[in-house]
């Protein structure tokens, strides 16, 4: 009876789908894309989903660059999902801190894999993180736009104030110039009278 229960439990365990495993790549070798990464890691086991984070500079012009050059995109980090958790652990242990390509003519010859197995990490966690980062970027962008508007309003207000102050200062300068001219004329008259008096004395 005990043996029958054990065989049933074993069969139930075998019927269960294997747990998936995810590895994290902190750096992506140059000229690598999702297709290339899938080809590389498929040698170790069945690969599920692959996500590579585009660099900020490339994300703006990704449409233009993708039409011009197939492998022109640059990626900063990536996540690779394996159908079996054991395979993901094995890949992280074998490839971490190893050379990407041993051929000297290869463009990845000087690159090293930086791979970490993510324990208890699911693909939904990645979606949540990306959604959070997207919302944070939007919030930051809104804050920057509001700050730019405040700066613009402050600048225009000060500019108008400066214009008013400038006209006021110009008027004061004109009045001051007029007063100086009058004083000069008066001093010239006084000097002339003194000169004439000195002649006839």
TrEMBL record:
Keyword Cytoplasm annotated: no
Family the entry assigns: Belongs to the ESF2/ABP1 family.
Species this chain originates from: Asbolus verrucosus
Family annotation (InterPro entries): ABT1/Esf2, ABT1/ESF2_RRM, Nucleotide-bd_a/b_plait_sf, RBD_domain_sf, RRM_dom
Residue stretches in coiled coil: 159-186
Cellular compartments per GO CC: nucleolus
The protein's name: Activator of basal transcription 1
Compartments in which it is found: Nucleus, Nucleolus
